[in-house]
Amino acid sequence: MDIGGWLRELGLERYEQAFRENEIDLRVLPELTADDLKELGVAAIGHRRLMLKAIADLAASAGRTAAEDVPAVPTANATADAERRQLTVMFCDLVGSTTLSARLDPEDLRAVIGAYHRCVAAVIEGTGGFVAKYMGDGVLAYFGYPRADEHDAERAVRAGLQLVEAVAGLDTPAEARLRLRVGIATGLVVVGDLIGQGAAQEQAVVGETPNLAARLQALAEPGTVVIAPSTRRLTGGLFDYDDLGPVEIKGLAALVEASRVLCESGAESRFEALRAARTPLVGRDEELPLLQRRWRQTRAGEGCVVLVSGEPGIGKSRLAQTLVEQLSGEPHTRLRLFCSPHHQESALYPTITQLERAAGFRREDTADQRLDKLEAVLRQAASDLGEAAPLIAALLSLPTSERYPPLDLTPQKQKEKTL
């Protein structure tokens, strides 16, 4: 394969003449940078990105294969530059693994650890995290690397709660319920440096944050999640906490205000949960009066719909909340439905949560108690619950016990009737 063939594989053969005029061949290719590509006339960012990725793939494969005419390149060329960024770090530890190793046959212990690792990986990756390292019965995970998200701290805490529950429910040869300890911390780190060799190689995180997360994990009781104050500030009122007070962390001069995460809070609005206190609204001299005019039109009998849209963080929820506060003295009925970045696979999630709030579900309610509350809500709109109750109960994942016969409907027909 020559440089022309390489470009044709990428669908970028238009740059072949420029590469040949500048004497770029497969020996020089691994050394090219984004600035070099600009000088070669690769103006489109997408094309430069595509080339740089392909160059990195060539460099990564150079040490593993001698196929075609790809020249060997130093491993350092394939290493991504280290980055300084905000990261949420999670440490998980399986409780009582030493006792398990003494009690179980090595084959059974291998099955237990394998099931545990698979469970942890599935939950962490499913919530947007990155499993950085397995350390026997411990797991190190990053939220915010390699892909960053504004909800990384929240994702990490949700993952911790799910892990505690999921690991406890594993069916393994241990013949006893497995328990997990989780520690989470958020802060500035330098991430991306490759350390170690061969199978032990990992992308290291340097900074105080991973050490703090590890220490918090050691403080946690079995089956609990303990977080640093930095993580709690970012998750606000999205969860219920138990304050552990100032705790001494080995290696840190100051005491740390640690918190145990109990469960998700009953906050109706993410906006309110993440903003305990607000400063006065500034600006919006056009938008707020427009909303007030539309409200007056609605009161006069002219129905209106207003769509407020824009980039995240510009104040859409704050604008709507300000209007609601101004209407507090006027008679109106408010219906609020919320989407969630953590339930994108549930098309009816806003409706489901609204129904649960309307029925007044509580965490400690039994299935029968929840069904009683659901029936009370549905009776406000329907006298015969024979069809409505089992349909809505199925939507809310509620068993109907002996109260209603099973729905004799195809999945498609059940979906149509539910909608």
Give an overview of the whole structure.
The protein is an alpha+beta fold and 419 residues long. It folds into four domains: 76 residues, Transcription Factor, Ets-1 (DNA polymerase, domain 1, Orthogonal Bundle); 191 residues, Alpha-Beta Plaits (2-Layer Sandwich), CATH 3.30.70.1230; 40 residues, no CATH class; 70 residues, no CATH class. 41% of the residues lie in helices and 16% in strands. It is built from 16 helices and eight strands. Helix 13 packs across helix 14 and helix 14 crosses helix 15. The longest helix is centred in the first third of the chain and has 21 residues. It starts with a helix and ends with a helix.
